[in-house]
Amino acid sequence: MPDWLPPTLIAAAFVLAALLLLLALRGRGADQMARLGAMMEGLAAAQDRLARQNEERLRDQERSLAARLDQAAARAQDSAGAIQQRLAVIDAARANMEALGSQVGALAAVLGNKQARGALGEVQLRDLVADRLPASGYAWQHTLSNGTRCDCLIHLPFPPGPIAVDSKFPLEAWTALQEAAEPAARTLATRRFVQDIRRHVADISQKYLIAGETAEAALLFLPSEAVHATLHASHGDLVAEAARRGVHIVGPSTLWAVLNTMRGLLRDARLQDEARRIRHEVEALGEETERLERRIAALRGHFSSVQQDLREIELTAEKIVRRGAAIRALDIPDPPAARAAE
After folding, report:
1. Are 266 and 137 spatial neighbours (Cβ–Cβ below 8 Å)?
2. Total-model pTM
3. CATH class for domain 114-269?
4. b/e map of 117-130 (b: 16 or more CB within 10 Å)?
5. Tens of pLDDT along 159-199?
C-alpha cells in the first residue's frame, strides 16, 4: 500500500463527517443519516484493516531489515577478518623486506671492502671445491717453492700435475662499467676493467706456474657469473690472451664443470694406484707360492727318505723276528751239570 493512502482516507472521513453535519443541520431525512452512518462505519473498518496491514508490513519490514543488518554485520565481520589476515601477511612481508634490506646492506658493506670481498670469493671457492673433490685431492693456502701462496692447489697427477686456483673479484671496475652512461665514461671503465683482469692474469702466470712442481696452467676464479659473462661476452680477446699465458678464467658454473673433470682424473689416478698396489701384492703372492712349492718339494724328498728308512727298519725287524723264531724252534739238551743239580 502507498504511504499516502491512510492520510487520504482520514481526510475523506473528515469530509464525510462534515457533510453529515451539514445534512443534519439542513434537516434531511433519517435514511440519509443512516446511509452516512453506514458509510462512516465502513470507512472506520477499512481504516482499521489498513492500520493492521500497515503494522504487519512494518513488522515484516523490520524483520527483513534486521535480517539484512545481520547479513551485513556478518559480511563486515568476514571482511574485517580477511583484512586482518592480509594485514598480518603485509606485516610479515614488511618484516621480510626489512630483513632483506639489512642483509643487502650487509652484503653491500662486504662487497665494498676488498678484504671482505676476497674472503667471500674464497668461501665460495671452498664450497665448490669441497663439494666436488675428496679431501685428499686439494690443499688450502698452499705455499709453493717460490714462497708464494695460492688460494687452493688441486693435487692432480702428472700429467697435467697440480693446478693452482686463485680467486679474484674486480667489482669496482665492473660496477663502474655497468653504471657508465656516457661513451667517454664507459670507455674509461672498460679500460680499467681490462687492466684489472690483465694484472690478475699476469700475477697468476708469474707466481703459480712452476715447471716440475705445478701444471702448465692455472685457474683464475671469478666468484660472479655476471662478471664472468661480461668478460667472455665483451672481451673474448682478453680471455684468449689469458689462455695463451696459461691462465684459464672460470666462473662458478664453469669451475663446477672443471671440478667434475678433475674428480674423474683423481678417480682414475686412484684406480691406477690401487691397480699397481694389487699387482705388487699379486707378484709378492706369486713369489711366496714359488717358495712354498720349493719347500713342499724338499719336504717331499725328506718324507721319501724317511719312508725308505722305515722300510729298511721294517725289513731288519722282520729278519730279527724270523731269527728269534728259528732259535726258539731248536731242541738243545741241557748240560750234565744242570741235571746233577736237579
Report:
1. yes
2. 0.49
3. alpha beta
4. beebbbebbeebbe
5. 788 888 888 877 677 677 767 677 787 788 788 888 888 88
